[in-house]
Design a protein that fits this description.
The structure is a homodimer. The first copy, chain A, is mostly beta strands and about 160 residues long. The first copy, chain A, has a single domain (about 20-150), classed as Jelly Rolls, CATH 2.60.120.10. The first copy, chain A, contains 1 helix and 14 strands, in the order E-E-E-H-E-E-E-E-E-E-E-E-E-E-E. Chain A has one helix at about 40, and strands spanning about 10, 15-20, 35, 45-55, 65, 70-75, 80-85, 85-90, 95-100, 110, 115-125, 130, 140-145, 145-150. Chain A is globular and about 55 Å long. The termini of chain A are far apart. Chains A and B meet through strand 1, helix 1, strand 6, strand 8 and strand 9 of A and strand 1, helix 1, strand 6, strand 8 and strand 9 of B.
Chain lengths: ~160, ~160
């Protein structure tokens, strides 16, 4: 098949970004995740769409919630455990989850299987967004240069 | 497996809406499409996420583009032909496309196969959005009550 041209895109054409912008000691915890920024590659600006791969034993992020961003995830392949305040749920391909802005229920996805898990994630880009991490001493804020992190008392890492 | 609870959701739990809000003679052209509004079911407000099924021979929409909405689609199953100004491209599962706000390139998806095709679609909700249909005498505008349609000269259907 001929290679797709914009506005169509085959994700194999998009190189992944590995790891996170977290400071240590958190960076090491999510060093294995791989994100392909499909929305950016397609020229979208109002929200981001990533195709994210979580290897066996890895997590998608620190458990967190957003003040102003709506977040959506859809499982493409493999199996992931969704962790929230209410506990755990196992998600398989075709299942999804949504995290409305401002709902104080930290979430993350854990891969407890022996094979890669892949999901689509969507999040809109609110300049006033703040990210809360209930389990860790870290806080995130949107800035024009991307997300910036401090300790919860505002001091830098 | 136990039924998922929010913030997780299995799309089988979401009843589809069949057809469109287009006036005739356009309504009949997309009467077969089925949309499951996953984003609404998950309580998301900043953008919509639909899981949309296009039966054999059907189309996703009239060919169109948005003034202010970014649109993203991801093929889940089956095969769809993307039609744009530049012609046609065949999309299979895992492929995607994106339509940045304001880019004057009308698009739609056609199912030319003998089986259902399913895709995810994301669109943000801009109150100032206008929809242009290059091939048809119809115009769309966002309103607080949803999208409203007129002829291109503004007269009602």
């Amino acid at each position: 098949m001929a290679q797709l041209k914009l506005p169509a895109l085959d994700p194999v054409q998009v190189p992944p970004r590995v790891g996170s912008a977290y400071p240590e000691p958190f960076k090491s915890r999510v060093s294995a995740r791989r994100k392909q920024r499909l929305g950016d590659a397609l020229g979208l600006k109002n929200y981001g769409v990533n195709l994210t791969t979580i290897p066996p034993g890895a997590v998608s992020a620190l458990r967190h919630w957003h003040s102003h961003e709506d977040e959506f995830i859809y499982i493409v392949s493999g199996e992931l455990v969704l962790v929230t305040n209410d506990g755990e749920q196992r998600l398989t391909p075709g299942m999804c989850a949504g995290f409305p802005a401002g709902r104080a229920d930290g979430h993350c996805l854990v891969n407890r299987t022996q094979r890669d898990a892949v999901f689509l994630e969507v999040g809109d880009r609110r300049p006033e967004d703040a990210v809360t991490y209930p389990d860790d001493d870290i806080a995130g804020r949107a800035t024009p240069q991307g997300r910036r992190f401090t300790r919860k008392d505002g001091t830098p890492y």
